[in-house]
Amino acid sequence: MSPVIVFGCCVGPSGKYDTVARPGIELARRHDDRVILETGVTGICAVYNRILDEARAIPDCEAVVLLHDDVQFTSPAARGQILRPLSDPSVGIVGAVGGRGLFGPQWVGARRLAGEVTDFYGHRRFGPRFAEVDVVDGLLLALGPRAIRELRFPEDVLTRFHGYDTDICLQARAMGLKVRVVPVDLLHRDKGNVGDATAFEESRSVLLRRWPDQITPLRASERPRIWAREHVRPRLGALRHRAAVATKSLRHSTQGPDRTP
């Protein structure tokens, strides 16, 4: 029998699942794959644990793909892009973007970033397209067989909608499983912010307490490089983008409209 994938989604009240996530899942899935939907009133850790509990009872389940309701697969190839790295039994979790060497509780707070994604800010390349990392962004979390069997999200301490991705990835690493970034054909139709700032800060405190050996402060020698990455490079990228737009506009104005019949 061919491997079965479970696509699991925490569906919010925005209605994005029907217009964004569902069309992408239908594009990527095979007929025998399963889709499990849950609402998020109890927090995303509890939701994802219920999805994992249901997936464990499905014969031949080789992967559980947990995605936000604002994530859309853009190609049937996405299924294979996720499943191939998980065929390695040493790999526990796969995602689209992530980081290694955490100094903060999110994947972006890592010394080395990896992956690429198209989101609110446009197409962004953070580093190598294929990489072994410590954590991946929760926009897409794909768990392999051992991770499905043995991992659980800490719903008792992370009760809302932040920090779950960092925690589950660090759990996987602690049990000897690899966490990998791979290219996946998708769009993240997000809002470009962290959402509930209070919940974000609460999750930050929880993660720093739970993982003090994995989330370590920057040394003085590391700070200039990280500062440049977070402040200088985005500004240069914005300038290049504006210059490209201006050049395109100028070219159009000098050439005139296309009059080809």
Secondary-structure map:
Elements: E1 4-11, H1 16-28, E2 34-39, H2 44-56, E3 61-68, E4 71-73, H3 77-86, E5 91-95, E6 97-102, E7 110-119, E8 122-125, E9 131-133, E10 135-136, E11 140-143, H4 145-150, H5 164-174, E12 178-181, E13 186-188, H6 197-210, H7 223-255
Parallel strand pairs: 1-2, 1-3, 5-12
Antiparallel strand pairs: 3-11, 4-13, 5-11, 6-7, 6-10, 7-8, 9-12
Describe this protein's structure:
The protein has 261 residues and is of the alpha+beta class. It has 2 domains: 214 residues, Spore Coat Polysaccharide Biosynthesis Protein SpsA, Chain A, CATH 3.90.550; 42 residues. It is built from 7 helices and 13 strands. Strands 2-1-3-11-5-12-9 form a 7-stranded mixed β-sheet, with helices on both faces. Strands 8-7-6-10 form a 4-stranded antiparallel β-sheet. Strands 4-13 form a two-stranded antiparallel sheet. Helix 1 links the parallel strand 1 and strand 2. The N and C termini lie far apart (54 Å). The model has no long low-confidence stretch (mean pLDDT 91). Pfam families: Glyco_tranf_2_5. GO terms for molecular function: transferase activity. InterPro entries: Nucleotide-diphossugar_trans, StrF_dom. This is GT2 family glycosyltransferase.
